[in-house]
Amino acid sequence: MSEERHPLDHLLRADRLPHIWCPGCGIGIAMRCLVLALEELRIPRDHTVVVSGIGCSARVAGYVRLDGFHTTHGRAIPFATGLKLANPDLTVIVFSGDGDLAAIGGNHLIHAARRNVDLTVICVNNFIYGMTGGQFGPTTPLAARSTTTPYGNFEPPFNLPAVVAASGAVYVARWTVFHVRRLITALREAITKKGFSFVEVLSPCPTGYLRRNQLGDALDMMRFFKTQSEIRHGAPPAEVGIELGRKLILGKFVDVERPTYHERMRRQLAAFFTEPYVEKASEEVEAKEVES
Amino acid sequence: MSRWEVKIAGFGGQGIILAGYLLGKAAAVYDRRHATMVQSYGPEARGSACNSQVIIADEPIYYPYLTEPDVLIAMSQEGYARFAPEVKPGGLLIVEQDLVTLDAARLREEGSGGDIVRLYTLPATKIAEELGHRIVANIVMLGFLCALAPIVSPSGMREAVRSSFPKSAIELNLMAFEAGYERGRLSRSADDRV
Amino acid sequence: MKRGPAVLTGVHFINGDVACAEGALAAGCRFFAGYPITPATEIAERMAERLPEVGGTFLQMEDEIASISAVLGASWAGVKAMTATSGPGFSLMMENLGFGYMTETPCVIVNVQRGGPSTGLPTLVGQGDMMQARWGSHGDYETIALAPSSAQEMFDLTIVAFNLSEKYRLPVLIMSDAVVGHITERVIIPPEAEIPIVNRKRFAGPRGAYLPYLPEDDLVPPMVAAGEGYRVYITGLTHDERGYPSTSPDVQERLVRRLVEKVRRNAHDIIRLEERGVEDAEVVLVAYGISARVAYRAMELARAAGRRVGWLRLITVWPFPEERLRELAARVRAFIVPELNLGQIVREVERCAAGRALTIPVLRPGGAVHDPREILAAIEEAFHV
Predict the structure, then answer these.
(1) Which residues constitute the domain of residue C65?
(2) Averaged pLDDT score across all residues of chain A
(3) Which of C149, C176, C194 is the C-terminal boundary of a domain?
(4) Which chain C residues have a beta carbon less than 8 Å from that of A85?
(5) Which residues, other chains included, contact A239 with Cβ-Cβ below 8 Å and sequence gap of 6+?
(6) Residue C212 within a domain
């Protein structure tokens, strides 16, 4: 008799399930999209690493059957930078939440984008600090209620695609956990993209955000994602800020080419050193350039 | 002598720290002795008072600060005024003659016996300018010192100079060293005749 | 230009910071992430110049938190990694230092101490971070901290630090100070073959059989690197042998006790001391870093005046050499502890003396080293009590 197995068991740590997420939470969907994207990509899984910080989304690093690093709050990106630069053969994916990546880790976010380190950052944005019980964060819309904005939020939120695009990200997209097919495609593109790529994933937090703001349950949020979204590929990132009562702008906003940190480093150092900074191929290219 | 304490004082931009470094390097790397340098400088990179303190010894050097300098090279008025009284009796005091006005009262006192230091003056900056650039005044001073006291070997000092500058600057610095060394040799033989 | 040598065998006249960088390279360090800060900047500058020569990676990060995070990440990529800082940056590193102890990540953190608190005296010496080195990150843990007192030791002890960190799988601290960082001295770099190098125990068994936190007899679990196919999960949460988070008090007890015990039980292997004239001493000076060299002068002066004074230099400060101090406490009249803080290591000495010997602090809050005569006065006091 063969045991029934989930078709994604080889990419998930079944011995760690059930997961910690609340009913209706969207993080599980986002994780499944990541796993399906990896499944489609067929990149060497032994060389694929997931790094996270702290928070509900950060738990993903411990559920995927890959090398996973659940680091300290806000520091997933610099940890991932160290991993990637010390072993450039690794495919390094940062999976964490909006509070982790954009508040406590915000400085690292913009600097990693500036350096164009070859990382994929997946940011689940549920508009709230979920794990600590619903405090407002750097993405909480104006006027929203949270346990620390009992009279409504009066801090303007970050427009994350604009922040990372302005900092130098070469790939920037936003989807919701309702748009799974498009999200999987975006994750696939982001992971294969050379350089700093960023995918914002809008997701419901029924416990910490929806309930407190009378926005219904998770299903209502999914309905909202379905009906109140507008797909505008190539929209200028500055125009995609999220406001209560306005349509959500989704799509691929940035997909440009820019030398990565490694490429620039090798190019710069090749002027001074031979190996290991000059590959055979680029030596030939250089020789040609000198000739012409 | 197994232990030498040397203080070089001046202001930022005169190569005071570099002079101390070269002296220590000659002793440590080329003469294979123990050498330690500590430095003190103001918050600005240039212009403020600074000094370097070098100890050269045959034994390991535990306490790295000078207790009683055997040598003071004063390349500024402030350096002279502050540190000249510390020099050990019988020690060596070398001043940049165009930048330091000697204290007449002190000289009289010293001349009357007691805590006598051996005083030498040298227009190191002027000599350096004649060689092409005032920036090597510190190396002129090192050459002068090398001829006056057996702190480091002249060959070690030359090696230290050769190994510490970019190719294009080695010749000028070696010339500066030799110019200072020659002046020191002449001063010493003048003394010997007395 | 071809690659340069990692070990610059020969006699050098270099400062402590540069010697530290050379020690790291000789130890096999191939990754450095840091942020400029006086008086540790020269370490980063030297690494920026030298790492590309040996095929390593130098990275200037946006702050010290990012620096230590990148170092921990690089270590999990299987590369020996280091960062260097001073007080303010050391404070910023504390949380991730704890992550390093919890996840048992080998790496080296250099603190070239300056006067504090806060911005304090950026260019001047201090030894005020010694207790922070021991207790700075939250929760229970044991650390290893070495205190070099010369440029030569900045080289030698950086190698020792890497070896201990690889052997016991934890961040090792080099608690230097502004004088030792900037002092320029003769440094002898031995031939590469004469430098003992320790590398972390690696797990090489079948993939399914690996338990990342199953210790061996020395209480240290063998390590793997990311990308080797073992699919490890590493978390700062309390974790079991599989590395999986747990909220069980039993798991917490087992894990934290082991993290502490792997250092305490191996203290004999970790602790290094230098002693002079302790055999017949009635009074022993206990010091570390630059203060030890000043204390040495005081001992010379006291000995010249006929006083039987000994000198004990702490090379390893943490774990504290309790055993040796207790032994001495049973037979000496007094310990004298000069430090450039207002009383940190002296508390440890006093704890070990436990009333059997007098403990006399000679304290300055940094900015300048002691005058040996201050220490001499304390010696006289000890003989007159």
Answers:
(1) 10-194
(2) 93
(3) C194
(4) 31, 57, 59, 70, 74
(5) A249
(6) no
Q: Is the pLDDT of residue C45 over 50?
A: yes
Handedness of CA C235, C240, C244, C249 (dihedral sign): negative
What's the rounded Cα separation, in Å, for the pair C253 and C61?
Answer: 36
Looking at the structure, do residues C79 and C186 belong to the same domain, yes or no? yes
- pLDDT at position A292 is 37
Quote the number of domains for chain B: 1
If one counts every other C-beta atom within 10 angstroms of the C-beta of residue A17, the result is: 10
Q: A79–C245: do the CB atoms touch at under 8 Å?
A: no
- pTM for this predicted structure: 0.95
Same domain, C174 and C306: no
Distance CA A117, CA A112 (A): 6
The token pair at A219 is 């299903």
Per-residue model confidence as pLDDT tens digits over A28-50: 999 999 999 999 998 999 999 99
> How confident is chain B (194 residues) per 10-residue block, as mean pLDDT?
91 94 98 94 65 96 96 96 93 96 72 70 97 96 97 97 96 98 92 64
> Quick check: A78 and C66 CB within 8 A?
yes
Instruction: Give the per-residue pLDDT at B191.
Output: 75
Q: What's the domain range around B16?
A: 3-193
Domain boundaries, chain A: 9-258, 259-292
CATH, domain A9-258, list 3.20.20.70, 3.40.50.970, 1.20.1560.10, 3.10.350.10: 3.40.50.970
Q: How many domains does chain C have?
A: 2
Is C73 among the domain residues? yes
In a domain, C257, yes or no: no
Q: What is the mean pLDDT of residues C348-361?
A: 98
Please give the structure tokens belonging to residue A286.
Answer: 């250089």
Q: Which two tokens stand for residue A207?
A: 């416990």
Could you say which residues from 262 to 281 on chain A have a Cβ atom under 8 Å away from some Cβ of chain C?
269, 272-277
- Tally C-beta pairs within 8 A across A and C: 144
Mean pLDDT of C105-111: 98
Backbone angles phi, psi at C181, to 5 degrees: -70, -35
CA distance C86 to chain B (A): 18
Tokens 């068991």 correspond to A9
Q: With cut-offs at 50, 70 and 90, classify the pLDDT of residue C220.
A: very high
pLDDT in tens, C167-209: 999 999 999 999 999 999 999 999 999 999 999 999 989 998 9
Domain stop point among C194, C227, C261: C194
Burial (CB < 10 A; 0-12, 13-18, 19+), residue C208, is: exposed
Assess whether C183 and C294 both reside in one domain: no
Express as a percent the part of chain C with pLDDT over 90. Answer: 97
CATH of residue B179's domain is 3.40.920.10
The ipTM value here is 0.97
> What does the pLDDT read at residue B48?
81
Count other Cβ atoms within 10 Å, centred on residue B110.
Answer: 18
Question: What's the CATH code of the domain at C190?
Answer: 3.40.50.970
**Residues contacting residue C134 through CB under 8 Å, at least 6 positions apart:** C143, C145, C318
